[in-house]
């Protein structure tokens, strides 16, 4: 019996197939009918896909059942410490480090004692034209969860 392919190995195969087929993450998300950021995260190993979603992606990318099986697995979520050194990821961490305390204070002022859910959550990315260079707009949309004692 073969072990189940790791999510990182499946992600590597998905990325290679996507590039070789000249598809964007948006193309794949559209084919699945699922949100762009969620789809990308799932294909990179951060969310489980349904059997139907995994089969659709594997058919689109000409990947086998071993990849589909892996895409259906529950992940161990989080960032690989080596990825935290990537400049794009590091700048996102830096932004949260700098503005996190202010956002926390503003959430408490506006909503009360609680947190923004990252489970009941939506995220989106967009490009906004700007004279000094296009802007990256990241929208985090999480349900407010009040602390209950």
UniProtKB/TrEMBL annotation:
Keywords: Lyase. One of its GO terms (molecular function) is cyanate hydratase activity. InterPro entries: Cyanase (IPR008076), Cyanate_lyase_C (IPR003712), Cyanate_lyase_C_sf (IPR036581), CYNS_N (IPR048564), Lambda_DNA-bd_dom_sf (IPR010982). Residues 78-149 form the Cyanate lyase C-terminal domain. It is an enzyme of class 4 (lyase). Its EC number is 4.2.1.104. It comes from the Bacteria. The active site is at 91, 94, 117. It catalyses: cyanate + hydrogencarbonate + 3 H(+) = NH4(+) + 2 CO2. Belongs to the cyanase family. HAMAP family: Cyanate_hydrat. Catalyzes the reaction of cyanate with bicarbonate to produce ammonia and carbon dioxide. This is Cyanate hydratase. It comes from Nocardia rhizosphaerae.
